[in-house]
Amino acid sequence: MATQAAAKQDTFIWQGTDRKGNKARGVMQGSNQNTIKAQLRKQGITVKTVKKQAKPLFGERKKPITPGDIAVFARQQAVMMKAGVPLVQSFDIVADGLENPSMRDLVIAIKDDVAGGGSLADALRKHPRQFDDLFCSLVEAGEQSGALETMLDRVATYKEKTEALKAKIKKAVKYPIAVIVVAVVVTAILLIKVVPQFAETFSSFGSDLPAFTLFVLKISEFVQETWWMIGGAIVAGVFVFKEMKQRSKPFRDALDRVSLKVPIIGDILKQAVVARFARTLATTFAAGVPLVDALDSVAGAAGNDVYYRAIMQIREDVTSGSPLAASIRTTDVFPSMLIQMVQIGEESGALDEMLDKVATFFEEAVDNAVDGLTSLLEPLIMSVLGVLVGGLMIAMYLPIFMLGSVV
Fold it and tell me: Would strands 10-17 and 23-30 be described as parallel, antiparallel, or unpaired?
């Protein structure tokens, strides 16, 4: 019901005068014109006209809600609660400052549920695509312990750290892929458009062409005849890959295992998973969530099947009475530093602090590794581009140079 009420709100453009008689105009959301006029009168505005804003010809395309939007929402709510703003009122303040209409509607829907007497955790659980079990469980723990503002601050920090880590991983993967795509496109244009022009010129030479030039001309002829097949195969391959990744769990699991074995990238992914493991476990443990239940949330946030299975094995060992550090050691997938810090944390009673330090260490390690990888790839990729483009140009000008030397 709350979602439907939020969806029915329209955007109105109003004009009028303020208390001092100055002209004023603006945009406001509401269910109808009378509601808008009533709200403006409360603000001391003398309304002249209120018109519904025209919708786009092909309908409004709403911007999707991203994990980054949820991280910002969590931080803003934490700030509002720390400032002593009542929970329901804080939703209005946060919603007014949001630029994403979809996120604004979501916040209004949550506010309506809470204002109707429901708990914040229950309101969040109605939107599982945006708020996972871990997020909702931490908020519920904060409500039950009477420390919601502290828990919201921890949730906000957790979301900000995890999203920053994801951004680093995407940066490490997207940069070389983008450059490879550019290299393929440039090479294809040269083979399809530029090389044939040289081929027409070479046909009038009346002499044998160098082997390298003939090789490039053959490749150009092949690409010209089959470019649509090559393009179709690439598009089909990308589509099949995405569909299999989305629909086939065995394929995703195999992809997770292979990704960890890729040179350099695999090490970065391992460090990222360890950082996520430590950060999630530190947050849930500090919130007072029982260790066994916390490990369930940690497994779900692992993001890799190899580590998911390892964490579930840790959970079983802990359930049977084994210490956490010993359980982690038996999986043989976590670094010794994590195991030693967990052992110290268990012995000193400061497990959440030790895990937080481990998370910070590995997050910085991922940051440095990504920067190092980028610095390493830049000259390497430029060299590859130079060889591709330069090789094609040399192949085309080589007959001209040979002809000049004969003359």
Answer: antiparallel
d(CA 337, CA 355): 11
CA distances from 259 to 36, 296, 363 (A): 55, 23, 19
Count how many residues are written for the chain: 407
Question: CA-based angle 306:302:123, to the nearest 5?
Answer: 145
**pLDDT at residue 1 in the model:** 40
Residue 236: predicted pLDDT: 92
Query: Low-confidence residues of the chain, pLDDT below 70?
Result: 1-9, 26-27, 53-62, 204-207, 403-407
pTM of the entire predicted model: 0.66
Beta strands in 53-170 (DSSP E): none
The C-alpha atoms of residue 400 and residue 406 are separated, in whole angstroms, by 10
Element (H, E) at 24: strand 23-30
Q: So what's the pLDDT on residue 55?
A: 61
Long-range pairs, 3-10, Cβ under 8 A, ≥24: 3/105, 3/109, 3/126, 5/109, 5/112, 6/105, 6/108, 6/109, 6/112, 7/105, 9/108, 10/52, 10/53
Cα gap 221→266, rounded to integer Å: 39
Q: Tell me what pLDDT residue 313 has.
A: 92
Angle formed by the axes of helices 101-115 and 87-96, to 10°? 170
Task: Return the SS3 of 49.
Answer: strand
The rounded distance, in Å, linking the Cα atoms of 85 and 79 is 9
* pLDDT for the residue numbered 5: 42
- β-sheet bridge partners, residue 11: 29
Question: Could you tell me the two tokens for 246?
Answer: 């989305």
